[in-house]
Specification:
heterodimer, A: 292 residues, two-stranded antiparallel ribbon, 11 helices, B: 342 residues, mainly alpha, globular
């Protein structure tokens, strides 16, 4: 029973990170209909920057803040300089450009910081809480992770539903032509969407770095499972991304705890196929009319 | 579908044309393999099996409009089938390759049937999960699949009629090129047949196609089966050339680089698949040469080939959105126009 509780708690904290990456992917998909495979490279870069700032200044929170700001700027630059040219073109071309950027970022990070993964400090203690004399597999740092991801999800929902900027972003994504005629600066909204997504992505990088370490390829599994979580929940739904992340985190945690870690990727496949066979557009998809 | 296919039969002479093309290609490949050294013969063999899988993938993605990030795993199915049949059961090469093609086609039927319900990024996600999930089986059943180390088979022996000193690499290149030519012949005919047109109709407009009497789901599944069969053959040839089937060769990177190659080469055409295969084989050695030609620190030079690869992908997509084949066609038509005016 304690093992079950431990695995559940562990699943929730890793699931929260998948949810954050999924949110970053969903934000970009909603805005520009591009699956941003470069997200893994972007959050890797900002986490490396955080690592450097922390080790030179000695302040975790300074590194944390710098990484988030860098994420915002990087997202805006990537959209404005690179993705603007392939938006609205053949969808595969955008995917290839994103993959090219991912490879370029990983290679650049290898050149600057080397390929050996380095450790990254957690925000809070990673010693599990003491509950009635036994130590559970959930630490103050895990609490921080879950709370931050919830705060981001709620913040994004508030932004999209409750503010003028959020309304403009939704309009730009939903009907770019109409939105433009109504005076929305559509291009600027896309840039903002990418910046926000990269912000959320860099947050996910900071949260997961203590457990996976920082290296050019250390975040590949996070990107893959984040994408799986986004597809699981439905790429159009931020709520779906959050739920998909937690569900995937829990399932993978149970499978690796009870059946061994070699079956984790196979379990992800089974879960994804099962859900997609029942709901081809993800858990939180809405039905759409089809016309010639 | 049969009725529609019969009504829009392939233009007469396609079969003869394809046969002629394959014969010309065979002569060129034969002369090339004679002229090349053993290292380049091996590269030729690599290019040949890459062409086999890319031809299938470009039919699936370019013609039938379905994305797959899982073709690396389908290659693994073919590769392990050949390794098991030749290594354990001592089958001859040709039946083993046929079995690899069939096994992959069966797996492809299952994937394709599931794929008919999925579109765009959801299909990408499902096939991605397939690509990372399937190699885990090799780890789980170590006894059968050899775990991380994979399965090793004996190298093929060139027939004694070719002489005692016939290089092994050239023989491997011949085997792989023969497989590639079979794929070229079959795919070229398929593209020009009613089935090829059905693929295109479904890609362009599913609902219009279904109103014309095409069973969209079946057409899409068929595209997946054809493409999986090509991937299985390619995987089998890979095992024969490298004498090894190991999970490390079929990671997600393989699936992603296959997709990259068909888009870079030019989506939907067999010419594009040839360019894609050339890119997959030549680009890594070129980028290595470039990286080694500068005197750089090991940290930089170790990452240089990857950086160039990423940069090439980005620049190529921005400059030639329809790939190498598309760019060549544009140049050819521009030259044609100019000559017409003169």
């Amino acid at each position: 029973m304690t093992k079950f509780i431990d695995l559940t708690l562990n699943g929730i904290s890793t699931g929260a990170v998948y949810a954050a990456v999924a949110l970053a992917l969903v934000l970009i998909w909603r805005a520009t209909r591009i699956v941003n495979f470069a997200q893994g490279g972007m959050l890797m870069l900002t986490t490396f920057i955080a690592s450097d700032v922390i080790s030179s200044s000695g302040s975790y929170w300074l590194g944390f803040a710098v990484a988030l700001v860098c994420g915002l700027i990087l997202g805006a630059i990537v959209e404005r300089v690179l993705m603007r040219r392939v938006e609205g073109g053949p969808p595969l071309n955008a995917v290839i450009v994103a993959l090219g950027l991912l490879i370029l970022l990983q290679a650049s990070a290898g050149m600057i910081w080397g390929n050996t993964p380095r450790s990254f400090p957690p925000a809070f203690s990673i010693r599990g809480y003491d509950v009635g004399g036994t130590r559970v597999l959930f630490s103050p740092n895990d609490t921080f992770t879950v709370l931050v991801v919830i705060a981001v999800a709620v913040g994004l929902a508030a932004l999209f539903r409750g503010t003028a900027v959020g309304l403009k972003m939704r309009a730009a994504a939903f009907q770019p032509e109409v939105a433009r005629m109504l005076g929305v600066r559509v291009g600027r909204m896309f840039t903002l969407g990418w910046a926000l997504a990269a912000f959320v992505g860099s947050l996910a990088g900071l949260l997961v770095a203590p457990s996976v370490f920082v290296g050019p390829n250390q975040f590949d599994p996070i990107l893959i499972f984040g994408f799986t979580a986004a597809v699981l929940g439905g790429l159009d739904s931020p709520v779906g991304a959050a739920v998909g992340g937690i569900v995937l985190g829990l399932v993978l945690s149970y499978v690796s705890g009870y059946e061994g870690s070699s079956l984790v990727t196979l379990a992800a496949l089974v879960v994804l196929i099962t859900v997609l066979m029942i709901r081809p557009g993800g858990l939180f998809s809405s039905t759409r009319e089809r016309r010639v | 579908m049969k009725a529609v296919a019969a009504r829009i039969r392939a233009p007469s002479g396609t079969l003869a044309q394809s046969l002629g093309l394959v014969c010309v290609a065979a002569v060129i490949l034969f002369l090339a393999s004679e002229a090349l050294g053993s290292y380049d013969d091996l590269q030729l063999a690599n290019g040949a099996y890459y062409f086999a899988v890319l031809a299938g993938l470009t039919v699936l993605t370019g013609l039938s409009g379905q994305i797959s990030l899982g073709h690396g795993a389908l290659m693994a199915v073919g590769a392990y089938t050949v390794a098991l049949l030749i290594g354990n059961e001592h089958w001859a090469l040709v039946p083993a390759l046929a079995a690899a093609t069939a096994t992959s086609a069966i797996v492809g039927t299952a994937v394709g049937a599931a794929a008919t319900r999925l579109r765009g990024p959801y299909l990408a996600g499902a096939t991605l999960a397939f690509a990372i999930g399937l190699p885990a089986l090799a780890d789980k059943y170590t006894g059968t699949f050899g775990g991380e180390n994979g399965l090793i088979i004996n190298p093929p022996t060139p027939p004694s009629s070719l002489g005692a000193n016939f290089p092994l690499e050239r023989w491997e290149a011949w085997i792989a090129c023969a497989g590639a030519l079979v794929v070229l012949f079959l795919m070229r005919n398929l593209l020009r047949s009613g089935i090829g047109r059905a693929f295109r109709a479904v890609r362009d407009d599913e609902i219009a196609a279904s109103l014309c009497g095409l069973r969209v789901g079946r057409v899409q599944t068929l595209a997946f089966v054809v493409s999986a069969a090509c991937a299985g053959l390619a995987g089998g040839l890979l095992t024969e050339v490298l004498q090894l089937a190991a999970p490390g060769a079929f990671q997600l990177q393989l699936s992603l680089s296959l997709l990259t190659a068909i888009v870079l080469g030019g989506l939907g055409s067999l010419g594009g698949a040839i360019w894609g295969a050339a890119v997959l084989v030549l680009l890594p050695s070129w980028t290595n040469d470039i990286a080694n030609s500068f005197s750089l620190s090991t940290r930089v030079s170790a990452n240089m080939p990857l950086a160039i690869y990423g940069l090439v992908l980005i620049v190529a997509m921005l400059l030639w959105p329809s790939g190498i084949q598309g760019a060549l066609r544009a140049i050819a038509s521009r030259v044609g126009h100019r000559q017409g005016r003169d």
